[in-house]
Write a structure and sequence with these properties.
Elements: H1 5-19, H2 21-24, E1 31-34, E2 37-40, E3 47-51, E4 62-71, E5 74-80, E6 86-93, E7 108-110, H3 113-121
Antiparallel strand pairs: 1-2, 3-4, 3-7, 4-5, 5-6
Length: 126
Amino acid sequence: MVLTTERKTALTWAVLIVARPALVGLTTAVVEAKGGIEMIAPTIGRVMWYWPVKEKRQGLPMAAIVTWVWDENMVNLVVFDSNGNSSGTTSVPIVQDGSPYTAGDSPYVEWMPYQIGQAKKHEGTV
């Protein structure tokens, strides 16, 4: 099997995630209360929806995987375009209830509706 640069990068991240489980945390379904509003805490390996700059949006979000968590409002990602090609992007703000960021012309990331529904379903059980 020949490994392309993209495949090597994906395998490297997979190894890092398996080899460094402490970075991931105890669970990937954490919901934290911030000022009375429930927020989904990002963790390495989670899938999110990425919206590029407004001029490059095509009406649908791009799939993205969290590769680093700066804090509950900022992450690094590997983003997949509609052809499955990947690219890295850093310091992307998370737009969600309780976040200081809002959706606008700049790139941002958000949780998928299913993830929001699951967080609401399990709210108060963490």
